[in-house]
Each structure stands twice: as C-alpha cells, then as structure tokens.
Design a protein that fits this description.
alpha/beta; disordered C terminus; 6 strands; 7 helices; two-stranded antiparallel ribbon; 38% helix
Length: 234
C-alpha cells in the first residue's frame, strides 16, 4: 500500500477549481478538511500507486502542521496489520505551523494571520502570530527534525519502507522545471503532480525493490479512504 501524508501539496489543493478542502465544495460539506475526493486521483501519490499497481491511502490535509502529519502517520501505522507491505511517502511542511488541541478537537494554525480559530482564542492566535520570528522557526525546526528522526526509527524497526521530502524541495523542483501555479496562488496543477510523480517513482521503485519497469499492469481497486532540512531522498 502507498500511504501519503503531508500538507496541501500532497492533498491536491486546487486541483479541482479552487478547493483546498473537501468542505469547500458544497457537495462534500460533511467531509470536512479532508482532501477533495475528485482531486485525489490527480495527485502525485495516486499516480505512483497506479504505476506500481498498489492500493492507496490519502492522509494528507491542506494547511497541515508537521505535528498533525506525525500524529496521523503514527495512528495509521498502529492500525495497520501487514506493515511490511506499507510504503510511506511524506511531504513535510513549513516549520512554523502548529497543532493545538482545543476542546477535544485538533486545530491547525499557520502564521498567515488568517486562520479560523474559536472566538475566545482570537487574541491568543494574534499574539502567537506576532511571536513567529526566525529564531522561533529555527527552534521548531530542530524540535521537529528530532520527532521526524524518531518516526524514521519506528519505521525502520517495523520494516516499513518510506520516502521523505520537504515541500520546499517540491516547489523548487517544479518551479525550476517551468511549471506554474494555479489560480495565482501557491499550488500546482495536475501537470506538475505528474512531473513530481515521475521524479519520485524511480526512487520509490528502488526502495521497494522493484527491478523492472511496470507497464500496462492491471489496475487494482484504489483505496481512497475518507476517513539539518530534508533535501533529496531519505
């Protein structure tokens, strides 16, 4: 199984109209902040799963913090029985983002100053944004890298293969290849997702021990469950 986690770049934000979350589309209000179901087949992760004839699980979410990525990845691993057949691809996000637990709900906050927070937390959020200095980002970066290293140790111990990248690497690569973002924003279109899939696929194959190029393989049913910096491959 190909397991994908990360932020909006992995979740396929704006691959369908300008939707970043499923709930942005009136047809999928009940799906909340999960990836838009029609965007998922257009993402680089889905394309990798198809190329390798593997089941697929999308756990990425737009505006995600690294804390959410770490938490949900660990939850998924704990719930997966056949771990040796799992391959994790994770695109780590920017360091300043945090996850706050508010009234039994996890809240993702960024330094944009535009996040929707409960009314009683508006001033706290504004103060937090003002504290997001480069020094604070560096502190978070070091703490997050330690958590990521701990996750790598867990994956290695359980025989789970993986590939990590930072989304700065993703955007830099696609920009250098001449791809443009959509809707005058920060996200790339399906053509760029295809380019990133082709960029990652050889390394994924190597890590999975796939020797021959897979072409014209029968398509399995794809599982779309709605439910130092990293540079290069790890």
């Amino acid at each position: 199984m190909i397991y994908i986690n990360g932020d909006s770049h992995s979740a396929g934000a704006e691959l369908v109209k300008d939707y970043c979350f499923a709930q942005d589309d009136p047809r999928y209000l009940a799906w909340g902040r999960r990836a838009h179901p029609e965007a998922i087949p257009l993402t680089y992760g889905y394309k990798i799963a198809q190329a390798l004839n593997q089941p697929f699980f999308m756990d990425a979410e737009s505006a995600s913090s690294n804390a959410r990525i770490l938490r949900t990845t660990r939850q998924f691993i704990e719930q997966t029985h056949n771990k040796t057949k799992l391959f994790c691809i994770i695109g780590w996000t920017t360091w300043e983002r945090e996850e706050w637990l508010v009234e039994d709900q996890y809240l993702q906050v960024t330094a944009s100053g535009t996040d929707s927070v409960p009314e009683h937390m508006v001033e706290e959020y504004k103060q937090w944004v003002s504290q997001q200095t480069q020094e604070e980002h560096n502190r978070k970066r070091e703490a997050t890298l330690l958590e990521i290293e701990n996750l790598k140790n867990t994956l290695n111990e359980q025989g789970i293969r993986y590939l990590f990248f930072n989304t700065d690497e993703y955007t830099k690569y696609l920009t250098e290849q001449g791809y443009q973002t959509v809707n005058n924003g920060y996200h790339f279109g399906e053509d760029a997702h295809s380019a990133w899939y082709k960029h990652l696929l050889p390394e994924v194959k190597k890590l999975m021990g796939v020797q021959n190029t897979l072409t014209n393989t029968p398509k399995r049913s794809i599982i779309n469950t709605v439910k130092e910096q990293f540079r290069g491959f790890n």
